[in-house]
Amino acid sequence: MPSVVVLGTQWGDEGKGKIVHLLGKQADYIVRYQGGPNAGHTVVFDGKKFVLHLIPAGILIPKKICVIANGVVVDPLSIHEEIKLLEQRDIKVKGRLFISELAHLIFPYHKILDAAKEDAGGKSTKIGTTRKGIGPTYADKVERVGIRLIDYLEPDTFSRLLEQNLSLKAHIIEKYSSIDKLRAEILEQAEYLRPFLQPFACDTSKLLNEALHKKKKVMFESAQGTLLDIDFGTYPYVTSSNPIAGSVGAGCGVGPSKIGSVLGIAKAYTTRVGEGPMPTELKDAVGEQLRATGQEFGATTGRPRRCGWFDAPVVRRSIMVNGIKDLVLTKIDVLANVDPIKICVAYKYKGKLLKDFPNSRAAIMECEPVYETVPGFGAISSELRNFKDLPSNAKKYVLRLEKILGLKFTLVSLGKSRDETISTSKKSIW
Ligand code: IMP
Ligand code: MG
After folding, report:
1. Ligand 2: distance of its center to the CA of 405 in Å?
2. Predicted local confidence at residue 123, as pLDDT
3. With 80 as the cut, is the pLDDT of residue 121 above it?
4. Which atom of ligand 1 is nearest to the CA of 130?
5. Which pLDDT score is estimated for 430?
6. Does the domain at residues 3-89+205-423 carry the CATH identifier 3.40.190.10?
7. 32: part of which helix (H) or strand (E)?
8. Can you spell out the DSSP letters for 339-355?
9. Residues spanned by CATH 1.10.300.10 within the chain?
10. 299 Cα: distance to centroid of ligand 2 (angstroms)
11. What is the predicted pLDDT for the residue at 427?
């Protein structure tokens, strides 16, 4: 089947950007199916760094077609800025990027509502969101008051829906901004954003189904990791959409019979940004070392990421809920000179051993990781291209993770650029 879903198995920032940039070479279409400008995918090549928020990393590969599907929430201002930035750096976007007419749009009032909720009640309502308006936009979609790209492109429909939204939300918005000022700002922006976005808008479900019918290769990329999934993540400390593979169907208008394989990306240790439980978090010098060596700072918000040991129950849950058949291990080089290394293999809660990631909020908050300790290894040269040339303890670490997870890694990544990767399997991902 010529389609593959590439997704993160932890709390995001597993290195999806690099892997899509590497494997996307074989794809014809690269598609984002959920999330919004909360995502930050960093891609480094030819010594240049690109951070993408809404546009799939495939845009950096010449001639690939990129799609922002209906499951994504699009901020007209930030997509405009992202396209302009790419064009300034000589990346052709027009004619290669298609945005679903059915994608819901983020407006300044969504960001006001996002921040208002974050700041309202101290710890109890704080999720540590990116404040990009993601939650309130998905809430509007489900509430059936959302504004889609197709609505934005029809001025009369848009003005009517904007009025409806401003009056529905006035009681909160008024505390932060004047409604008249906000309306004027949104309408003024729409005057230039509408003609700018028009050429990118289309029926992306039709586009993708026709491509699949012609046996084109389609790669679907998630924006966030599985543990941030609204259903299977650490609720309520999650994002407001479903990064899991099953969400490709609803997020793109592509039937489940068209989805081929699922590739999970796992980082050699764990990170998370924002609030919420993280059983293997390290608040010590090792955590600091991982953050500094791995440059673990949010690509969207610049916040330091919380770092910790590899958490196998987290990745096992991801393998299960996504139906992952192939895994990629990233950033193993960052573990160099950490000695010993610990792997969380299960948790202990109220005297009981939990092998699976728990659903209970109390259990997730209070469980203690059960660790297996393995010896560390020294620096890994990013020049290495054969698994056998890795330091012996690094090889043992990889093999031990495979055993604990019950799945093999097809790629092991040891650096930022796409060539700094070891291929450990001849099997095609397609
Ligand atoms: P929101 O998606 O902005 O509503 O934020 C909800 C939670 O998801 C917060 O903990 C964010 O830090 C986290 N989050 C959202 N997008 C990303 C991402 O791309 N990488 C890592 N964490 C993210
Ligand atoms: Mg990221």
Report:
1. 23
2. 66
3. no
4. 3
5. 85
6. no
7. strand 29-32
8. -SEEEEEEEEETTEEE-
9. 104-199
10. 6
11. 83
